[in-house]
Amino acid sequence: MIELIQFPWSPFCLVQRRILEFSGAKFKITNLPSTSDRSLIWKLTNEQYYAVPILRDGAKVIYETGDDTQDLARYLDAKLNLDLFPAQREGEQTILCRYFEHEVEALGFKLNDIYFKEFVTKADQVGFIRHKERKFGRGCLDQWRAQQKDLVKQLEQKLAPCEQMLVHTEFLLGDVPLFVDFNLYGMVENFLFSGHYQIPKSLPNLREWYQCMKTIRLVS
Ligand SMILES: N[C@@H](CCC(=O)N[C@@H](CS)C(=O)NCC(=O)O)C(=O)O
Fold it and tell me: Last residue of a domain, which of 49, 64, 80?
């Protein structure tokens, strides 16, 4: 059985989880014991990788080989016949995913992280704060909390082009879901993870798309 090794709130993990659910395949989720304990991933990848998510499928272990690769999604796509990466949409998907994983993600995770005490265990909170502050500077979580309204506004603006696309089609690139839809879904789901936010009212088509993406299943 395929195993997804992850954190529940991670945008990149939420992408893979939704693809697995969509596929209807049986899979197992393993959450790492703490945000700073990457020893399971380190061991499984022969000391090549420590980020989440990774996949284990029997003897195979799949991890991202580059910053903007989609090795996990492509593995699931091929294995489970999902058709999420049609050749003729490859360029558009690459461009859009970079936007989602960088511009959208950068706002969504900050807005979720400010509520970290509600989803990170007490024992793990110091590790979580240290991890954030080492990358974003001392007091970053307090700064994001103070900037919350502005960050939501910025996110709304970043999502506006997706709203424009979804006025015309049910999914981002047409009438079937492609990898871009799952990719954006993961970023949006991370933003919503704390339960303190909603998709802005100015984005009604995105709201509708999100509800659909949350439950959509492959019909084979
Ligand atoms: N491009 C990678 C990004 C993965 C990533 O950035 N994961 C984060 C958690 S959301 C992580 O584990 N970063 C390394 C760390 O926290 O030390 C993917 O799509 O999986």
Answer: 80
Whether the CB of 64 sits within 6 Å of ligand 1: yes
The region that residue 27 occupies, defined by phi over 0 for left and psi between -120 and 50 for alpha, beta otherwise, is: beta
Percent of the chain having pLDDT more than 90?
99
CATH code assigned at 26: 3.40.30.10
Best residue for ligand 1 mutational test, from 13, 41, 52, 100 (most atoms within 8 Å of Cβ): 52
Instruction: Give the torsion sign (CA, 30, 56, 132, 198).
Output: negative
Whether 47 is covered by a domain: the verdict is yes
Is the CB of residue 187 below 6 angstroms from any atom belonging to ligand 1?
no
Per the confidence metrics, is the pTM higher than 0.90? yes
Q: Which domain holds residue 174?
A: 87-214
> Average pLDDT, stretch 207-217?
98
Query: Could you tell me the pLDDT band of residue 126, with boundaries at 50, 70 and 90?
Result: very high
Distance of CA 6 to the CA centre of its chain: 11
